[in-house]
Write the structure tokens for this entry.
Amino acid sequence: MVQFRRGRHRIHEKHYLLDFDLKSREEAKKMAGKSVTWKSPAGKVISGKISDAHGNKGIVRAIFERGLPGQAITTEIEIHDAEKSEKKELKGAKK
């Protein structure tokens, strides 16, 4: 996790820039649609989804379901396939 998505006057608390050591924008665009999760030191899990590439050097933008704390910067993020996350959502909707 690199930083919040931000502008000159505003920080988007739910939007984060993530670095997965990708080399180009094309590789980053292939990651769009995958789900990601962040786990706090206390064990709380917050999930999000990669929306698109950010810039030309392989950084991606992810939108989380709720804002992450500042301590999340420079921590590890887990990537999941989009197919698995869709199945989880469907199971939750049936109940």
In short: Residues 8 and 22 are 26 Å apart (CA to CA). Residues 85-95 have pLDDT under 50 and may be disordered. The first strand starts at residue 3 and ends at 6. Residues 3-94 form a domain with the Thrombin, subunit H fold (CATH 2.40.10.190).
